[in-house]
Amino acid sequence: MNMRPTELTTASDWLNKPVKALDSIAMYAAEERQKQLTKPAGSLGKLEKVAIRLAGMQGRVFPRADKVCIAVFAADHGIAAEGVSAFPQAVTAEMIRNFARGGAAICVAARFIAAPLAVYNLGTVSPTEGLPNVINHQIAPQTANFLYHPSMTPAQLTTAMDIGRSAVGDALTQQADKAQRLDLFVAGEMGIANTTSATAIASLLLSIAPEKLAGPGTGLDASGVSHKAMIITRAIEFHRSELKGFEQKGSIGDPLIALQYFGGFEIAALTGAYLACAQEGVTAVVDGFICTVAALLACRINPQAADWLILSHSSAEPAYAMLLDGFVSQPLLNLELRLGEGSGAAIAVPLIRLACALHNEMATFEEAAVSAAVSTIEAT
Ligand SMILES: O=C(O)c1ccc[n+]([C@@H]2O[C@H](COP(=O)([O-])O)[C@@H](O)[C@H]2O)c1
Ligand SMILES: Cc1cc2nc[nH]c2cc1C
Which helix (H) or strand (E) holds 311? Predict the structure, then answer.
């Protein structure tokens, strides 16, 4: 028997903790500084906006993006049994071993930006004990197949979200130099079939039919994508009586129910991590499609969480663009990435650092003795 979400939220009281408010004075001062830098106003586009937002998050006019921690959440999915991925389920654990050996894209990106990488295995069919930098939790070998069962029990959902939260705590406490604040938390995921899970959740949150959202993930062909959409449609129909409030646009359904019925352990951990970041006042850099669905869940649980999220890049997964309403800012990059692992978020870090450097180090019109724009030119 499934417990209702109200019992679940009671179990994880921290979900209801308020999100830290942005420092509006620092943000205003950063906005004023941008206007004084030697360039036409707005000409550095999203780089200006990200520096101003970071100023608000960090409570200082001169923000930084030096200290970065990366956490990758990995888990297996029961829905993989329905043939919804181009790759076999064994790849999840195999890639965790690759993360531990330093051979995955996220490992290279982590070294490139000098950020520590922690991998959290929340449950894989093949265990991954004794690997360096891999923290094993093994909630279950995999989620239940959501075509026939809710993916998780309420207790498993609570555990997975708590692990995401504690990963943020780990990142805050593990810093070698405690005096230096954590500037950015990069979260990633690994889980064969997790685009099916994320698409099902997106379908509920956005009230958009699965056939309009399903995409290739790791590389399905057109018939594979149709099969994936059909599986999601059947699963939503199967659980329909438990999915109150998701029937139409502007849905008021409980995001925790969507997560419990269709989520993966790693998606729940990501959702918990984004909420914890917002509560602790840590900027989270959001990766691709799966991470952005988790970020959307976090924002449905607490809309103020959006203040603490930087969307790093537009995933090539076709449904990505449909997730974007409701976020404070739009993705920084479009590199046609669809890898996951937190790779796109880590790739965006040097750009965020550059946005801070431009904001902090450019000369003002006054300092450089450059004439500022005349405020208005009267029409003749
Ligand atoms: O982040 C993305 O935008 C993204 C888009 C497509 C696939 N992925 C990755 O690919 C895996 C899921 O793909 P699939 O086809 O098995 O559902 C999972 O490990 C994700 O990290 C990630
Ligand atoms: C090889 C491989 C690497 C990945 N990294 C994230 N998702 C992935 C999926 C596959 C298949």
Answer: strand 309-311
**Tally of CB atoms within 10 A around 199:** 26
Nearest CA to ligand 2 atom 3: 95
Q: Tell whether 49 is covered by a domain.
A: no
Q: State if residue 195 touches ligand 1 by the CB under 6 angstroms criterion.
A: yes
Domain that residue 298 falls in:
5-19+65-355
Ligand 2 interacting residues, C-beta cut-off 6 A: 87, 91, 95, 190, 218, 339-341
Q: Cβ neighbours of residue 97 under 8 Å, at least 6 residues apart? A: 128, 131
Q: Which residues contact 343 (CB under 8 A, 6 or more apart)?
A: 105, 106, 109, 188, 287, 337
**φ/ψ (deg, to 5) at 135:** -100, 120
- ipTM of the prediction: 0.99
Count of domains observed in the chain = 1
Rounded to two decimals, the pTM is 0.96
Catalytic option among 341, 366, 367, 378: 341
Per-residue pLDDT of the chain (380 residues; tens, 9 = 90+): 233 344 444 457 999 999 999 999 999 999 999 999 999 999 999 999 999 999 999 999 999 999 999 999 999 999 999 999 999 999 999 999 999 999 999 999 999 999 999 999 999 999 999 999 999 999 999 999 999 999 999 999 999 999 999 999 999 997 655 667 899 999 999 999 999 999 999 999 999 999 999 999 999 999 999 999 999 999 999 999 999 999 877 778 999 999 999 999 999 999 999 999 999 999 999 999 999 999 999 999 999 999 999 999 999 999 999 999 979 889 999 999 999 999 999 999 999 999 999 999 999 999 999 999 987 666 55
Tell me which residue has its CA closest to atom 11 in ligand 2.
87
Domain of 109, CATH number, reads: 3.40.50.10210
In the reported structure, the alpha carbon of residue 80 is separated from the centroid of ligand 2 by a whole-number distance in angstroms of 14
